[in-house]
Design a protein that fits this description.
The chain is α+β, with helices and mostly antiparallel strands. 30% of the residues lie in helices and 28% in strands. It contains 15 helices and 25 strands. It has helices spanning 24-44, 104-107, 128-142, 157-168, 189-194, 210-219, 250-254, 282-289, 298-301, 341-350, 370-390, 449-461, 476-487, 516-526, 554-571; strands at residues 8-18, 48-55, 64-72, 89-94, 147-152, 172-176, 200-205, 223-231, 235-240, 243-249, 312-314, 322-325, 332-338, 354-363, 394-400, 404-405, 408-409, 413-422, 439-444, 467-470, 492-495, 506-511, 529-536, 540-545, 548-553. Helix 3 (128-142) packs antiparallel against helix 6 (210-219), helix 12 runs antiparallel to helix 14 (516-526) and helix 13 crosses helix 15. The longest helix has 21 residues, at 24-44. The two termini are 37 Å apart.
Length: 573
């Protein structure tokens, strides 16, 4: 999706959901998924710079794997996935077609049950080394001007590519299946058209420029065959052994699919976020730090290569968002995933970036369930409202329904991918304390995320903020503990009164005492509250306040936070 537009992919993130890790099957699934992400991303040479993982019982039979990719291209050189120009050749470039992935799109539109094992052939067999060749060849081909349009053969394979490209271009395509490269014998037209084998592109070239495409593709060792021609009629026509085996208007597939109008219940926009239960004792804090969802994800990050291409400025786990240099500039982009627009915006703001755009993947159960469909409508409405409030566009996305097995559905799981921009990478902020004696404060905006972003952006640009960490759903005490642990040696002494009002827009920051006056002025100008909590220093986390007290050594915090997932994975073997 990224490089077929002429952009070079330079960063990956993922959002993962699994059942509790004390179930051996869930642990094995996590191990396999992480190995798959690492093996593909590391091999193709794209750094994985961040992500999120949560563990809850409803995902035991329905794990979710969402992946976000970011690429860089010149705005005036983007290539679109449309065909045009009657007589122009249609090229097949990449790996050969096999029977893997047949009915993959259909599988994604059905719930799982006891018979689901029979659908194993629908799973696609990826080859990262072939993908690397396709990536480089495609970017080299697109650097010239021989290409009219290009699209990867994703869901529904050739069918999707042929119909969508021609319909977008207001034309048609006549396809000759006899010329499609095959790695299995005896494949039928049905299988060839629906296979979702990976690492393949459908490309429309300008007539007379065929060699400009073929020479490059073959130099990279790829199959490169003319498999069809653009036609003036707005039809998809498929030939096999000299006979027409399919011939239909493209609009019939793209625009005129049957509509299923289903009722939804009324709802009100609002997250209904409640205050996280405070950790007012040592035992409560250690217990939360050692829960799999809160614990350090180093076990995962260590398997990813975040240094490839040498552009990563803030690596996984070091800040609330990954930060990557934009090649050839001092600018950088920050990217994060979260379960709401506001959460993801705060994450990129914490590293000093200005949020500029989102994409999303909306994961739900069966839309035939009225409650599921209502939840979906509510999520879409909330995403729209939060984006409008922040002035951030939605640039694309995906919807994944039917995430259920044997009648058990996942909870509504919208995943937001947020992109932010940092004008100078030296302004990037991480979550760890920087120096003993620095002040620690809580920044809050009463739910107005836009004000919080303004404050953080100004503070980062002026180099006033030494560290920043989103309070999030885990609460203030966990945020403080994580900043201590990420600094590897600097504790903190703070005062936090319990109970306290909880805002969905709160960040823990640290700063040099000399910056206190300027930050206070910036807070007033931005309309946020800057409440001093304490100081950085010592070898413990000490939190005193009404209703409880915490006093834990850094090694004890580290044992709970860093040791939880390795222990769970080890015990599950």
């Amino acid at each position: 999706d990224i490089f077929t537009m002429g952009a070079r992919p330079i960063a990956l993130l993922n959002s993962l959901r699994f059942g509790p890790l004390d179930d051996r099957r869930n642990a094995r699934l996590l191990e396999g998924v992480v190995a798959g992400i690492a093996g593909y991303g590391n091999s193709i040479g794209i750094p994985t710079v961040g992500g999120e993982i949560a563990f809850e019982e409803p995902y035991s039979g329905n794990p979710l794997v969402n992946v976000l990719c970011v690429g860089v291209a010149k705005a005036d050189a983007l290539v679109k996935g449309s065909a045009s120009g009657a007589g122009n050749p249609v090229y097949y470039v990449g790996a050969k077609t096999g029977r893997d992935g047949i009915h993959g799109a259909t599988m994604a539109s059905a719930a799982f049950d006891a018979a689901s094992e029979e659908r194993r052939p629908t799973v696609q067999a990826g080859d990262p080394f072939a993908e690397k060749l396709v990536l480089e060849a495609t970017l080299e081909i697109l650097a010239g001007d021989a290409v009219v349009g290009i699209q990867d053969m994703g869901a529904a394979g050739l069918t999707c590519g042929v119909v969508e490209m021609s319909h977008k271009g207001g034309c048609g395509i006549e396809l000759d299946l006899d010329r499609v490269p095959q790695r299995e014998t005896g494949m039928t037209p049905y299988e060839l058209m629906l296979s979702e084998s990976q690492e393949r592109m459908l490309l429309v070239a300008k007539a007379g420029r065929e060699d400009d495409v073929a020479v490059i593709a073959r130099r990279w060792g790829l199959c490169c065959e003319v498999v069809g021609r653009v036609i003036a009629e707005r039809r998809a026509r498929v030939r096999w052994n000299g006979e027409v085996v399919a011939d239909l208007p493209t609009a019939l597939v793209v625009d005129e699919a049957p509509r299923d109008e289903a009722p939804i219940d009324s709802f009100e926009i609002g997250s209904g976020l409640g205050a996280p239960l405070p950790c007012v004792t040592n035992e409560a804090l250690l217990a939360r730090l050692s829960s799999a969802t809160t614990a350090s994800k180093d076990w995962v990050y260590r398997q990813y290569d975040h240094t490839v291409r040498a552009g990563t400025v803030v690596p996984p786990g070091a800040g609330d968002a990954g930060v990557v240099r934009i090649p050839g500039t001092r600018r950088a982009f920050a990217v994060a995933v979260g379960d709401s627009v506001n959460d993801a915006a705060i994450a990129v703001a914490c590293v000093g970036a200005e949020p500029v755009a989102i994409t999303n993947c909306l994961n739900f159960g069966s839309p035939k369930d009225r409650a599921v469909l209502t939840g979906f409508a509510k999520a879409v409405a909330e995403i729209g409202a939060e984006c409008r409030a922040l002035g951030i566009p939605v640039t694309g996305g995906n919807v994944s329904f039917y995430n259920e097995t044997d009648g058990v559905s996942i909870p509504p799981t919208p995943v937001i991918g947020m992109l932010g921009v940092i004008e100078d990478l030296a302004h990037a902020v991480t979550a760890s304390w920087k120096a003993a004696g620095d002040e620690i404060a809580l920044v809050s905006a009463g739910g107005d995320v836009a004000r919080l972003i303004r404050f953080m952006s100004a503070g980062a640009r002026a180099r006033l903020i030494a560290s920043a960490h989103d309070v999030g759903d885990d609460g203030l005490e966990v945020a403080l503990a994580e900043s201590c642990l990420l600094s590897r040696g600097l504790g903190a002494t703070v005062r936090a009164d319990w109970p306290r009002p909880h805002s969905s827009a709160e960040i823990v920051v640290s700063y040099a005492p000399s910056a206190s006056g300027r930050l206070t002025e910036s807070a007033m100008a931005s309309g946020v509250e800057l409440k001093r909590l304490g100081k950085v220093g010592g070898d413990r986390l000490i939190v005193n306040g009404m209703g409880g007290a915490i006093d834990v050594t850094l090694p004890a915090l580290a044992a709970a936070w860093r040791g939880a997932i390795p222990a769970l994975m080890g015990s599950a073997r």
